[in-house]
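Batch manifest line 480
LIGAND: pyridoxal-5'-phosphate
JOB: complex structure
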Amino acid sequence: MMLRSMYKFRQLAKNIQFLIESGSWPAHKKLPSLRAQAQSSGYSLMTVLNAYQELEAKGWIYTKQKSGYYVSGDINISPEHTNKVALNTNIEINSLVFDHLKRLQQDHVIPLGSAFPSVPLLCNTHFMKILSQHAKLPNSSLSTDSMPPGSLHLRQILASRYSLNGISTQPEDIVITSGALDALNLSLQALTKPGDFILLQQTIFYGAWQAAERLGLNVITIPEHPEHGFDVNAFESALKNYPIKVCWLMLNAHNPIGFTVSNEIKLVIAELLHRYKVYLIEDDVYQELFYEKQKPLSVKYFDKENYVLHCSSFSKILGAGVRVGWVHSRPFSNAIQHLQLMSTVSASNLMQHALVDFIGTHHYEKHLRQLRLKLQKNKNTYYKLLKEILPKSCKIYLYATGYFLWIQLPINVDSTVLYQHLLDKKIVIAPSILFQQDNLPRNYIRLNCSFNLTEPIKRALYTVVEMIKMLEQNAGADGS
Ligand SMILES: Cc1ncc(COP(=O)(O)O)c(C=O)c1O
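JOB STATUS: finished
ARTIFACT:
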């Protein structure tokens, strides 16, 4: 008990020290009162007092009588802290994402900014048939026998799929959730308290930023590696220098960029997690949408010490409306179920029963093979067209996975401005500000290429390109 509370105040002191070192809390800034700090961090008053006293003893902060604690004025900030790795506090992205998702729900928009694959590609008649059969059975549709941790049959099937992929798994390792977002959010909530530090890739699915905002977390980011997707040196530097509790990473078919990190790098990531005793929430929701022969491995494959919580779902394979996902983590299974039972409760019983029957058939594998081929075909068609019509000052990132193209616009074109102009034409794209903090260049967009290239979509792509050219020209004329 004694040791645990000692650890807690040191952890809090380290977090505050980092806020000072990184310049987020400048010299002579007043620290939150003991009570306010206790409330926002979830620590006891005594823990906060001990942390403040430790920081004072080390010279990071000083007290003013009857006024409180202040950041010291003469601190040397190590240059290591400004090296590539960045700190992001006070994240505010939820309203932006909310507006974006609402725009996508409007009638008659061309949803090039959607994260979901085209529904006709996902629709499988065998699955629909099984689903309608189950809908008629009271036990499937109305009973609660798939409450947390979820249907035993479904967990058995998922466990054997993991084992076939070289990750020895028992059904007890898996908790079924309401989609991957639920799995990711529950995992992050189980592992953190407000004020903790987490690590994200600089460019990442907005769900990670939203979760950090909701849970009041500080975010350390590392940049993408231009060649390998993942910068191992920046990762190690962040783990070494900052009090990071958890990382949330996408390493297969990264959303929004599309790269898949090599197995060698995944092995190094697992080793670093073990060395620095940091957990990883691995978002592997696109794991089945690879075009090459071999399914890419996950970091979970290399994780012999249970530091990885592996999250995925059926949303990108059978449709986001299925709302069935899972998290694979033996040590946190209980904590996650506790959170589940006071929030999202469980995934639909009906869907879990239908999935058990469908995944067990050869139709499932066939569906996956066909889906991969169609996505690859559509993405290549978009790529060819865009390569031809986009100005040479744009760069298209093409990877052999998924259904996104990440496009670099001319440096003077702000993707948020492009987004606004295109909304008037009922075209929705995804600007980079949905995936990054706004201190980065805004000249990137993500396009969803899963839809068949029909005439209206083709026209929309031409409009996007015309608009980019117009904005580039206007910016050139302004001299900006
Ligand atoms: C990278 C990523 N992770 C997680 C999710 C959430 O998936 P689900 O619909 O299963 O909650 C999405 C959905 O778009 C996603 O793109």
